[in-house]
Design a protein that fits this description.
alpha+beta, eight-stranded mixed sheet, six-stranded antiparallel sheet, 14 strands, globular
């Protein structure tokens, strides 16, 4: 079992839940912010010389800087118009942690800010879901090795739904499952129109986990969210699953294939959104991972339990695609990707299993169970 911190967040108002999070994780949030502050600047500087990056990212060609504060506050304004309670919760985090409000927003909007900076995404996440009599699923969560210590497990109560999951320090939610048996899995996409003008995708996931009481409600929240950066959030319940692709150009719901499988990496599958595909054109390894996993699930007739999940996801470069990602020993911030966690979700049980690291190191004794608490 992992030794990760489990934050048990409580509070009968958004601000109180935020204050509770901020107080409990103040030092960790500050450390995460310092890494992200450096990452934003590093990516912006590295992208400043590429074609179109100066105009799209708001980067000064001379100073090669990114106006993170302004971008963060712009996403806060969009969030306030859509779900003001999420802004209240972030205000509470800032107060509890003793940090400026905009830095907490920047953490929650890190996907949007990195999109503005033109961040490369070599690596990233792979997801598998199997529907049927009992829907189950899971994923690798890939991110920068320098942020391997900047995430935690959590349970959250006080909203319409209690939920459990994993997230980064200061970010309200990411991957999880709630007390109504609604789970979300998370893969970043890339669209040519991505920017930091809308509601951050991590806050959209938080809204689903905290308020959705059914599959239909979760899909409705996702398709109605005014996002400005792209992601696919896969909704899983005991008897259903679908991937909801979100982009500035719109949203699309992708159903499981005829065998009940959903296989997701980091490119759009819906034809109406593929015209704006950015990630796959820049880094086609997402297609390699998708092809490899699709072949593997075709040969897997049984249920998708945690043991099967890790076997399917434990693929490295020699296997044809790096699903289980390992950071190189050398390199700079922004270039060292690793699978930081492996997550299995069983929505019928309102439960997650979390392994600290990639699927190739997971075993029966390495999983930490988390059950969604009652409201």
């Amino acid at each position: 079992m992992t030794g990760r911190t489990v934050l048990r967040i409580t509070g009968d108002t958004p601000r109180r839940r935020g204050e509770d999070r901020g107080r409990r994780a103040a030092a960790a949030i500050a450390r995460a912010w310092r890494v992200y502050d450096e990452l934003f600047a590093t990516v912006a500087a590295g992208s400043a010389g590429s074609a179109g990056s100066v105009a799209s990212a708001g980067i000064s060609g001379a100073a090669r800087s990114l106006e993170v504060r302004a971008l963060a506050l712009r996403t806060a304004d969009a969030t306030r118009a859509w779900a003001p309670e999420l802004v209240e919760e972030m205000e509470g985090v800032a107060e509890g942690a003793g940090l400026p409000f905009w830095t907490v927003v920047a953490l929650n909007a890190r996907t949007e800010i990195l999109a503005e900076a033109g961040a490369p995404r070599a690596g990233e996440c792979s997801t598998l879901v199997r529907t049927g009599l009992r829907t189950t699923g899971g994923q690798c969560w890939d991110w920068h090795e320098e942020l391997a210590g900047a995430w935690h497990l959590q349970t959250v109560t006080g909203d319409a739904q209690g939920f459990a999951g994993i997230t980064e320090h200061g970010i309200l939610a990411k991957i999880g499952v709630n007390d109504a048996g609604v789970g979300v899995l998370f893969n970043i996409l890339g669209h040519a129109e991505d920017a930091a003008t809308g509601v951050p995708v991590h806050l959209v996931a938080r809204q689903v986990l905290g308020t959705a009481g059914s599959f239909a409600e979760a899909v409705g929240i996702l398709t109605g969210a005014p996002v400005s950066a792209s992601t696919v959030i896969t909704v899983v319940t005991a008897d259903r699953a679908a991937s909801v692709e979100l982009a500035p150009a719109g949203s699309a719901v992708v159903e499981p294939d005829e065998r009940g499988w959903l296989t997701r990496t980091n490119h759009f599958l819906d034809p109406s959104l593929t015209a704006g595909e950015l990630r796959g054109r820049r880094e086609p390894e997402t297609y390699d991972r998708h092809r490899l996993l699709t072949r593997r699930v075709l040969g897997h007739p049984g249920p998708l339990d945690p043991e099967a999940l890790v076997k399917l996801l434990a693929a490295h470069r020699d296997d044809g695609a790096e699903v289980c990602c390992h950071a190189p020993a050398e390199g700079t911030l922004g270039s060292r990707w690793a699978t930081l966690a492996t997550v299995a979700v069983d929505p019928a049980e309102r439960r997650l299993l979390v392994h600290d690291g990639g699927p190739c190191t997971a075993g029966p004794s390495t999983w930490t169970p988390l059950t969604a608490p009652a409201r």
